[in-house]
Design goal:
The protein is built from 20 helices and 18 strands. The strands form four sheets. The protein has a six-stranded mixed sheet with strand order 5-6-7-3-8-9, with helices on both faces. Strands 14-15-16-12-17-18 form a six-stranded mixed sheet, sandwiched between helices. By secondary structure, the protein is an alpha/beta fold. It starts with a strand and ends with a helix. Helix 5 (139-149) packs antiparallel against helix 6 (166-180) and helix 18 (563-601) packs antiparallel against helix 20.
């Protein structure tokens, strides 16, 4: 379908590709992989005809159609969602208008035996058949299913596109592209603006599609589920593997080990030949053998070893101070904007050291609850942060708070402390700020680069509660692995708002699902949650309806209890959690009082004040009693957890 022959691309004096050839066949599902800057997006642009190569030929099979989704595009703001999406069917609409005109002409004409009339009948029949084959009778239903699969609600269809964010408008462009059903789909980071459910839907759509697919994505789970062929761009060459991404990783490792062994053997052979030449170069009796060895050396073709970045960085968060057992407790938390309820009756408790995920469709309240936790917006109900909580928050807007007049290096050097300062260059390199990029001023960085820089700052600040809102959007696979390893080793508490299943896999032990105004707790990892939801088709996606029922946490043994028992258990747990939090606060207040008395007693006047000593002895007794009560409350809560 697409044939690429002897492709060469140069930027200035540096070649990006040299003499590359390959073919994209029908039913191929190709993942383009390689480090940032290798040329993945450039290759997609050339395949789409958006950019011309320095040399070589790109040929699309005659009669084949092609659809291209770039990372950034100019979006229209003049129509409703449905009107804009219907542009995908411009050909069908034109054909339908032509059929209407032909039908009108047939009704008006009476020269039934003439040649022109018979030609008109034939054209009408042909156009009707083509209209049916193009899906003209049911394309509206298919379009609505596609928009819903990508996260839109029916109530959104007649809203102007200008009311939506750039990410949502990109979804409209993706819907238009999918509905055109081109023979070849070229997709550059299609999951960047999708949530988990929409990504799963897109996977299912592409699996059933008859189009060939060539995609660039940093979502490892997505490309592994969608593709059956992996093309790696490295050292100006493309290596083609006819396998999924996970198998490609294994084959690439085996290939490189074979290359290394062959390279080492060749180097030994070269050394032996050179040694023979040097030993016998000036002996007349060996001149024939020496000349033979020289010719043998000239014929050797050097073995190349694939480029691999071995400077893998192991990044750790700085040690954090210990906080209370329950950094976050929500009791009947609700958020409403006028008559619109974002969520209601949210009851959750996050323990110290837990790593949890907030998931759900965009617009269901994940970031809103985060803002409630950050005390950035008002809300109903009670939300308490535990004793000694030091909070670190990452979101896209954090990038706007950076000092634009500082360099990338200065921005990080300001927050780095201790031995980590010796590794600033390595850390910047891991997040794609290597070499001269570290000396750039913040004001010249792109939005994605600023987001990565804000992430590095957060990694170096000593906090014990981390909230990360879509932290992987601008990170490649290697850098995501660096971040994931750092979070796994972090001994504090983490809340992750993310749609990246591979990133969340093995990282979180609890998932909070946002949907329909409710927040439900699911014990287990992200794939445990997805298996529970079994989101395989559009019909299984939860609808956005505000349920009136009280949300009950889904404990591991919840299936064995009746609904009323679950409600009662949840009520007892909330009461026990509040009791723990209250005693924890009491202990904190007593510790503060003890500290004040010790400070007063450390002065000459205080040392001779007997009343201070009496107060100190009394407060120490209160401390012992409060700690005993706190421990008892913790035991009662633990007993409820084990039920």
């Amino acid at each position: 379908m697409i044939s690429v022959n002897n492709l060469t691309i140069e930027f200035g004096a540096r070649p990006l590709f040299t003499d590359v050839s390959f073919v994209i066949n029908p039913k191929d599902r190709v993942a383009l992989v390689g480090k940032n800057g290798a040329g993945k997006s450039t290759l997609l642009k050339i395949l789409a005809g958006e950019q011309q190569p320095t040399a070589g030929i790109v040929a699309l099979q005659k009669g084949s159609t092609l659809g291209y989704l770039p990372q950034v595009m100019v979006l229209s703001d003049e129509h409703t969602v449905l009107e804009e999406a219907e542009k995908a069917f411009a050909d069908i609409n034109q054909l339908q208008e032509r059929i209407a005109r032909e039908n009108q002409e047939l009704a008006e004409r009476t020269d039934y035996e003439s040649e022109e009339y018979l030609k008109l009948v034939e054209a009408f029949a042909h156009d009707n058949e083509r209209f049916t084959m193009m899906g003209g009778l049911n394309y509206h239903a298919e379009l609505e299913r596609t928009l819903q699969g990508l996260g839109f609600q029916r109530s959104d269809f007649n809203r102007p596109t200008r009311e939506f964010s750039g990410g949502w408008r990109m979804r409209i462009e993706l819907a238009k592209l999918l509905m055109r059903q081109p023979d070849v789909l070229l997709l550059d980071e299609p999951t960047n603006h999708l949530d988990i459910e929409s990504i799963r839907w897109l996977e299912q759509f592409l699996a059933k599609s008859s189009s060939a697919v060539v995609l660039v994505s940093h979502d490892r789970a997505f490309i592994n589920n969608v593709t059956n062929r992996t093309m790696e761009i490295s050292c100006g060459k493309i290596t083609d593997y006819k396998v999924k991404y996970n198998e490609f990783m294994e084959l690439r490792q085996e290939r490189r080990e074979q290359q290394l062994r062959a390279y080492e053997n060749q180097q030994k052979e070269i050394a032996d030949i050179q040694d023979f030449i040097e030993r016998f170069r000036y002996k007349p009796t060996k001149s024939v053998q020496v000349q033979s060895r020289i010719k043998q050396l000239e014929k050797i073709v050097p073995i190349e070893v694939d480029e691999v970045d071995n400077s893998y960085l192991h990044l750790k968060f700085p040690p954090c101070n210990r906080c209370g057992d329950y950094p976050i407790i929500c009791e009947d938390v609700a958020k409403r904007y006028g008559e619109h309820t974002v969520f209601h009756d949210v009851n959750l408790t996050i323990r110290r050291g837990e790593k949890v995920a907030f998931v759900g469709k965009n617009g269901e309240g994940k970031s809103t609850l985060v803002k409630c936790i950050m005390d950035e917006i008002p809300f109903d109900g009670h939300l308490k942060l535990g004793h000694n909580v030091e909070l670190g928050y990452y979101a896209q807007n954090q990038a706007q708070l950076l000092d634009e007049n500082k360099t990338v290096f200065q921005t990080i050097d300001d927050v780095a402390k201790g031995d980590i300062r010796l590794k600033i260059r390595d850390i910047l390199g891991a997040f794609m700020f290597g070499g001269e990029a570290s000396d750039k001023k913040v004001k010249v960085l792109s939005g994605g680069e600023r987001s990565r820089l804000a992430m590095i700052r957060l990694l170096l600040e000593p906090v014990n509660l981390l909230i990360l809102d879509e932290p992987t959007n601008h990170l490649d696979m290697r850098t995501k692995d660096v971040l994931k390893e750092a979070i796994l080793a972090f001994d504090g508490t983490v809340i992750l708002v993310s749609h990246d299943r591979d990133f969340l896999d093995g990282l979180v032990s609890k998932v909070y699902e946002f949907g329909g105004g409710n927040v439900r707790e699911h014990i287990g990892g992200i794939y445990d949650f997805l298996r529970t939801k079994d989101i395989d088709t559009l019909d299984q996606l939860p609808k956005r309806e505000v349920a009136e029922e009280i949300v009950v946490k889904e404990e591991p043994n919840a299936g064995k209890l009746s609904y009323e028992q679950q409600k009662e258990q949840a009520k007892l747990k909330r009461k026990a959690e509040k009791e723990v939090a209250d005693w924890e606060q009491k202990v904190e207040e007593i510790e503060q009082r003890i500290s004040e008395l010790e400070q007063q007693m450390s002065t000459p006047e205080g040392a001779s004040d007997l009343s201070l000593a009496t107060q100190y002895a009394e407060v120490k007794k209160q401390q012992a009693t409060a700690e005993e009560e706190w421990e008892a409350a913790v035991d009662r809560l633990s007993a409820l957890d084990e039920e």
